[in-house]
Amino acid sequence: MQVLKFGGTSVGSPEAIQKVIEIVKEKISKEPVIVVVSAFGGITDALLDCGLQAARGQEQYKEQVNLITTRHLNAVKELIPIQQQSSMLSAVKKLCNEVEDLCNGIFLLGEMTARTRDKLVSYGELISSQVINNAFLAKGILTTWWDSRKLIRTNSDFGRATLDTEATVENFSEVMKELATDLVIMPGFIASDSNGITTTLGRGGSDYTAAIAAAAIGATSLEIWTDVSGMMTADPRWVPNAKVIPTISYQEAMELSHFGAKVIYPPTIQPVMNKSIPVWIKNTFAPSDAGTLIQQDSHRNGTPVRGISSISNLALLSLEGSGMVGVPGFSRRLFEALSSQQINVILITQGSSEHSICVGVDTLTADKAKLAVDKAFAPEINLQQVDPLVVEKELSIVALVGEQMKSHPGISGKMFGALGRNGVNVRAIAQGSSERNISAVIATRDVRKAINLLHEEFFETVNKQVNLFISGVGNVGSKLLAQLAQQQQYLLQHMRLQLRVVGLANSKRTLINEEGIDLNKWKELLAAAPESTIETFTDGIIQRNLRNSVFVDITASEVVASVYGKLLDKSIAVVACNKIACSSPFKYYRELKDKAHDFNTQFLFETNVGAGLPIIGTLNDLLRSGDRINRMEAVLSGTLNFVFNHYDGSRPFADVVRQAQEEGYTEPDPRLDLSGTDVMRKIMILAREAGETLEMDAIHNNSFLPASCMEGTVEDFYKEMLRLEDHFRSIYDAAAAKGCKLKFVASFKEGKAAVGLQEIPAGHDLSNLFGKDNIVLFYTDRYPQQPLVIKGAGAGADVTASGVFADILRATLN
Ligand code: ADP
Ligand code: ASP
Ligand code: MG
What we know:
The structure is a single chain. The protein is of the alpha/beta class. It is built from 29 helices and 28 strands. Strands 3-4-2-1-7-9-10-8 form an eight-stranded mixed β-sheet, sandwiched between helices. Strand 5 (190-192) and strand 6 form a beta hairpin. The longest helix has 28 residues, at 82-109. The model has no long low-confidence stretch (mean pLDDT 94). Residues 7-8, 38-39, 44, 124, 188-189, 203-207 line the site of aspartic acid.
């Protein structure tokens, strides 16, 4: 004989019940079957709601009872032919009247005891099982309806009663003797105590009813029919990529369900495990899907972690104090205080210093726990040997479960590494000595992110999802978006990276789409997006709390540069094309680098110097591998290079500068380039990366630009340059007369940096530069005479965007 259980959704509508009938019909053609059913989906909650409203004196409970009645009557009308309906309709009506009477009583008393609550909710399963029983009869299938209250005996702990196995097994053996049909229908969830008073087995308890029945009759198998195609690697409502687990051991299934996998009610496994009855989890709406087999051994299937689950509403209770060290009996007293209040302990950790014990309990019981524990330790608290119990709420547990974890080192390292990199703070850790479970207590707001990233880490060899938030959609920004759009498929295929732009902002508007913005339409979408500020944008990034988040700054804005700190604080990586942060006072630069380090994330700004050229990356590689930077010589301004490569006196200097601006090489205000300020910033950033505490005012600037050029607007600047054409001409002529070219050179040596125009003879390392080329010469311990040279285009939207792209990848592959 087999036992089949159908859950709330499986019997949630007449159409679903038709599917159930089809499934059962097929089964009974082979073997007799017991069918355990839940209440119609949502009815248990609705009944509880009626009771609560009545107890609060709210008369709306009557409307709710009417809705419950109508739903059941409609089911009868749809499932049973008209000629046979009337007796069932009146039976349902009668039961619903009892519900109303009960609620009237609760309303009059103004309270609902646990015993009354059990009585009230029992109607859900009582009615559903009778309606379904009649639906089978109407199809000509003979059935027996068993009243679970007469079979399953429990103690009187209403709400979640404990099974009396012996009495129950005996009751089943009695009814089995008289069974005359191939099909039995019985309500799940409900039972009774030794006085015949209705009890329930706890929310979700119909699974347990089925397991109790299966064990009592020695069933060949138990099948739990639900709305998903098996037990999955994580809750599919939270992790869209969750996969069905084909086989799993009893122990693993028990562990996963204890830690929140709602698909099976935790006590369900025990009775069937004791009798080695195999359990299948099957989908009523996709019966041909294989489902999950729960049995003695789970087969190895490549991954040592079988599943991930979570429990919310956890409170951590910490008992601490110097008076606890080495004194026996403290833990006993703590647990006694908790059990005296029937408080269930979900998790325990104790440091080996013995000076603190930490337990996790349901938040609902936390206040009661505090009162009880503080009372139990009142003498020690008075003597200040023990601190009053500390209670922290809004916590959750995430747990990795798998039998094979014990033979695979490094799993917890991987787990905590992934959590740490994403700024998920771990408040407590517990690992059972069976090593079947590693659990971490984290803030409830981090649960979704944590489960998804752990799932990614342990199950998704396929994709790592990266969520980009980009500020700035000018020249470089638009190029970056085009490059991302072009590469998305490649990255998915070759690097298993799912790179998505979730947020996009310009100075006025912010576009957000958690599923990823369509990069072929970003312009229209952004134009229609709501107005917002950088603060709302960054607050939104933090609140969304998505895993592997990267903020990309492609603006030249000071306000945008001021938000990096609060993002890094949340372990959100920052990729900056914007030079302002790194060239602001050393203290701020250092603070950001330290934050990135402390919060296990990345702060990258390769494009601050030489656009896409790998200058900062190379410098860091040299240092990390133990080399030392002794001297740097560099031409770092694409603009100045362009200008001095094109200026030969045949047309005014001002015209050449204007061409550089028009071709997009200059900063928005070209004076930043012409005055040398931009180059000063760049050599400062390089010197800082090389370990110097350098500030702007310590850099010597031998400027060729007369001070008068710096006054007024950009247009005034062009006029003034035109007026001073002779000055520029004479600089050029002097160099040309010596056969030299003009280069604006930045140098760094012995802790000192300087920038200025130099006459460079032919054949010099810095001489052969064309267009907007940049060059850096690193003289190091390992490259003492012949420097390490990096040279190439040092400006332009395309190369800068590709540098930003490379930083994004670096930030995500850490
Ligand atoms: P039923 O009413 O059939 O008893 P439940 O709602 O109690 O169904 O349980 C099924 C639900 O459990 C699924 O719809 C799914 O959302 C949720 N669930 C949570 N964790 C898991 C998991 N690891 N595997 C499958 N389902 C899960
Ligand atoms: N109907 C009960 C509940 O919703 C029992 C069950 O469905 O398993 O909790
Ligand atoms: Mg359930």
